[in-house]
Design brief:
Blueprint (H helix, E strand, L loop, with lengths): L2 H14 L1 H12 L3 H15 L10 H12 L4 H22 L4 H21 L2 H17 L7
Helix pairs in contact: 1-2, 3-4, 3-5, 4-5, 5-6, 5-7
């Protein structure tokens, strides 16, 4: 393809595909903070019960995390995964929620986040947040160790 055709194609993708727009924004600016905050709000919306019947839609939150993983921006993954775990721990603490699949998913996502942190060499950046999560989980009878 000619350079002008490639530019036109990228421009169309940017306009029409929200995930591509997000990826290109992060790629161009190397700033994940704003994007992470937007996804964190979505995750919260799904993790917290949305009515008096305690209907949880955390599977939708996990779907967001899976979709974002495809962008291959590991620090964004870590931010969202740790946020998901924090939200789930709050649900457990506030509502006494118990479901084996919920706990398994929580542990798996925490492990994914800590593995990515280790791969990125960012232990110093996330140490306090991980310790807070681990301590809170321990208080709730859940073992989340780094």
């Amino acid at each position: 393809m000619e350079k002008t055709e490639i530019i036109k194609l990228i421009s169309e993708i940017y306009k029409k595909i929200p995930m591509a727009k997000s990826y290109l924004d992060v790629f161009a600016t190397e700033e994940i903070k704003k994007l992470a905050e937007n996804y964190k709000k979505e995750i919260e919306k799904y993790v917290y019960p949305n009515d008096r019947n305690m209907i949880l839609r955390e599977t939708e939150a996990r779907k967001i995390i899976r979709i974002v993983r495809k962008m291959k921006i590991k620090e964004l993954n870590v931010e969202l995964e740790l946020h998901y775990v924090e939200c789930c721990l709050e649900v457990i603490e506030d509502f006494g929620y118990w479901d084996e699949k919920y706990y398994i998913a929580l542990e798996r996502i925490f492990n994914d986040a800590t593995n990515e942190i280790f791969e990125l060499g960012l232990e110093y950046k996330y140490r306090e947040q991980i310790n807070t999560i681990s301590n809170k989980a321990c208080e709730l009878g859940i073992e989340l160790f780094y």
